[in-house]
User: Fold this.
Amino acid sequence: MSRLAQDIILRPIITEESMINTAMRKYTFKVAKDANKIEIAKAVEQLFGVEVEKVNTLNVRGKLRRQGRFEGYTASWKKAVVTLTEDSKTIDFFDGMM
Assistant:
């Protein structure tokens, strides 16, 4: 059963470093933990109408957080850095951020 692109790409990651990478046609997203690189590439192409050259993924571990004497971990998640081809158009959502 194939999933929707909205179920794979959860949200964009807007940080100072990710905004610098947009000049090199690299865009960062929070993605579903069980999504693979092929599914991520197809989802980005479908959602934004761009051509994906490659996808790099990494699993981000949850951090230890304390609230008074109680402690626990934040949820772990998966991050994907998507590189677009040279002749592909840019993603309009990120263009408004700079």
In short: The chain has a mean pLDDT of 93. The longest helix spans residues 37-48. DSSP finds four helices and six strands in the chain.
